Each structure stands twice: as C-alpha cells, then as structure tokens.
Structure prediction request, 471 residues.
Amino acid sequence: MARSWPWQRVAQSARYSRHTLRHSPLAEISGALGDLGTLLPLMAALALQGSVSLSSTLVFSGLFNILTGIWFGLPLPVQPMKAIAAAAIADSASLRDTVAAGALVSSAVLLLAVTGLLRRLAGVVPLPIVKGIQLGAGLSLVISAGNNSLLGSLSWLHHPSVLDNRLWALAAFVGLVLTQRMAPADTASPARGTLFLPYALVVFLIGLVIAIIVSVLHMGTVSRHLPHFVVWHPHLVLPHWLDSHAWTMAIAQLPLTMLNSVVAVSALAEELFAPPFLSSLALSSSFTPTTSVTAFGCSVGAMNLVGCWFGAMPVCHGAGGLAVQYRFGARSGASVVLLGAAKLLLGLFLGETLLDLLRAFPRSLLGVLVLAAGLELASAGASLNTHLEGDGGDGSDVQGCPYTANQKRERWTVMLMTAGCLLAFKNDDVGFVAGLLCHGAYRLADKLEARRSSRNRLRRPGLGENTALLS
Prediction:
C-alpha cells in the first residue's frame, strides 16, 4: 500500500467533505448540532461556577472541531470529559484544578498512544466488551436525560416556565419518533427514500428562539443580559499540577477516556464508515477515514495540552457524540468544521456574554437530544453477532463462517455483563473488568472442555494403553 503523506490525506479528506456537504448540506448541519444535548448543559454549568472559561472553551473546542474534521474526515465530536465535569460541578472545582485534571488525562493518553500501548490494549479487548461499553454508555445517557438537571425537574406546565416543561419535551420526543426513518438517504442505500427532516437543527432553532424570549422577559427582573459584542482577550492560566483534587478527577476520567473516547470510538467509526459505505461514494477510491486508536489517542492528548493554558474545558471524543451526529445526518468532517467555525466566532466575539442565553436554553429540548444520543449509541450493540471476522482476544476462529447459537449467546452475555455492571456501579472500570471476567470464564470453559474431549478420544476402545501399535 502506497504511503499517504499528511498533506495528501488532508486534501483527500477535504474533497470528500466538500462532496458530502454539496450533496446534503442540511444533513451535515443537522448532524453537527446533534451532540449539543451533551455539550451545552455541562459547558454552561462549568462556566457559570467559574470552573472553566466559556470564551476559551468555545475558541479552542471550535479550533479542535475544525482540525479534527479536516484531518479525520469524520463527524468526530469534541465533547466534555464527563467524569471531570461531573466532579468539578459537584465540588465547585477551581479553574486551575479543572484544567489540570484534563491535561493530566491527556498526557497519559498521549503517552500510551505514541508508545503503541493503546493500540495493543484495543487489540486484546474482545469485541463483546467494546460493544458492552457502548451499550452501557448509551443507556447511561438515556438515564441522565431523566435526571434533575434535565427532564426530571420539569413539571407538565409551569416549571420552570410555560416555555420549558414536559409538554415541550413530549412534543420533541414525538418529533424524534416520527423522524426515525427521515434520515439522510445514503448513496450506499439507494432504495431508501430521500425525504429528510433535519431534526436536530429544527430542535436547536426552536430552543434558541425560546432562550432569547426567556432572556428578554427576565431582563427587567433578574441580572440577565442578551449576548453582545466583546472581543476575546486570552489569559494565561497555570494549572494546579500537584493538587490532589486534580489528580482524583484525572484518575476517575482516564479509564473512561481510553475505553469510550478512544477504543469504542474507533470501533464505532470502523462500523459506521466501513468500506461498503464508502465504496458507493464518488470519492471513495481516494479517501479512507482514519479510525485507528493511536490517531484518536494522539488527538485527545493534543487537545487538552493546548487548551489547558487558557482555561478551556477538558474535552475528548466520544462514541455517543459520533453516534448521534451520524444519526442526525452527519457523514463527513464538514459537519464538525461548520460547528467549529460557529463556536470559534462565538468565542472570539461574544464569549462570556452568552452565559445567560445558555442558562435559558430549554432543558426539555436538551433532554430529548441527550435521550436520542443514548439510544443511538446503545443501538450499536445490535450488530455484535453480525461481525464474522476475528475480534482480538475472542479465542475462537470464526473467519468466513457465522457464529454458532452457543457462541452468539455467550457473546451477548459478555456484552450485557459489561453494560449491566457499568450501569449498576456507574463506573466504566467495573463494567470493563466484569466483562473481562465473564469472557475469561467462557474461554476457560472452552479449554477445559477441549482437554476433556481429548482425554475421551484417547480412552476410546481400540486406543487404550494395551492396544498394539501395529496390527
């Protein structure tokens, strides 16, 4: 295979993204907005309590969106590091502690990536465990959509207002259900209808209008302001490298980043953008998206080692973000390049003045977007037993033949064990270890059964110890 130089790869990715954007612009824009249900609540909560700088977060996450979209050619999300965000919100962590935690995680991931250890880890993790992590992460998002920070605190009519309640959430959910088959028509599936409704774009615009109305109505009663022109002035931030709180948040985040933001993202990208999908595109012969864990690990590492010096929110990639952006229409890096350009402009010229608008964005609509993200990621588990290739660490050679009924049942059990323990203990590490133990128990049983069968063959009549070697 001929070596592809970096500038050649960027040119190929750009051609593919331009082709996709011209073919389905609304789908790319809608897909770009699909992950806002995860981004907006966490970013707003962290910025409001001073744990991150909103303007720096918008500027740097926008730049990372643009760079990853150009390089990877995929709708790869740039989203908050959730474990760090949750801990920072719960403990009102300082700006210097929060950015230090993100930088520590990125340093570890970058070291593992460049030394090849991350690739080896991905190579030995069985596919059912990866799918279990995706399923568990997806169901975790579904559950989080109903917590008190989103849908759980809403009433049917008046709380928090008539413009943000369960009726709005119900309407958004009905719209989500009705548009299930109104996905963009992939050229890989010409039989599908071409009717497409940019659901995420519509929901975002409705939410933005509501947020503006609420902000205007409350300007006279509370200290709220509409966004206005303010040029970004970057300030150097010195992270608290040795603070125990920063290390605690980093240790909690590291396994989640490696498993969900690198390994699971790589597996999902390979599945969504497999050669059969790309082979139907006009530019498929000249472009193959990068889906290696090493590339994703280097990307995560580089992002926070730059943004941490300016108070930007710790970010990573995520399987849930990729799944929902794909679900709402994104098929190339053009989607996240557009999103990144918008975030960059907002950060440069509006910055902290957006806080009140973010606070007013309806939780009812954000909750449904989070729900959609969770359902889309969880559905990745449905393809577990359709893979006919060996999946590192499985221990069985299934190349070229379907799995047996017993193999399928065992693989589903490993996936459900991983997802179930992840949900029960709210910890990716526990789910990962439980899946490994379940998988190992099956492999041990296979070896014991093989040894027993071998002994039985040696003890068959005519093959005993006293039988003559030559008759």
